[in-house]
Amino acid sequence: MKTNEMWNLIFHQESHELFRHAFVTHISLRVKRSTTMHLFDGVYYYISPSFSSQRTSELSHALDINGATHAQSLDDKALTHFITNSNRFERWQDVVTREEAGELSVVTVRVISIRL
Questions:
Q1: Residue 76 contacts residue 98 (beta carbons within 8 Å)
Q2: Do 48 and 17 share a structural domain?
């Protein structure tokens, strides 16, 4: 093999390797960019039945699209947040006990209307 042919072969292999590296880097950057952290990742919530079905649906939708997961019941061990619009509700004692133990956060949603 002549020296020029050998250099061309080496250059071709290095160019191919650089292209492959650039392509892989580009793909991995795209994957990293598309993997976004949602605001409520890791949140498992349960909404009190004291809300209307429409309000429950609205809250669930807002939480779900931002990465939260709906827990099936108050007894779900993964439950991290209980959402209510009242200080007293069915099984409130269980919720308070878990909140005091640091297992659960209670979020109280209040609706304030202002008449002008």
A1: no
A2: no
Give percent of the chain with pLDDT exceeding 70: 64
Model confidence over 5-30: pLDDT tens digits?
444 444 444 444 544 444 444 444 44
Per the structure, the complete domain to which residue 103 belongs is given by 44-108
Number of domains in the chain: 2
pTM assigned to the model = 0.63
Read off the pLDDT of each residue in 88-99 and give the average, rounded to a whole number. Answer: 88
Are 31 and 69 within one domain?
no
* 24/30 Cα distance (integer angstroms): 10
**Assigned domain for 93 exists:** yes
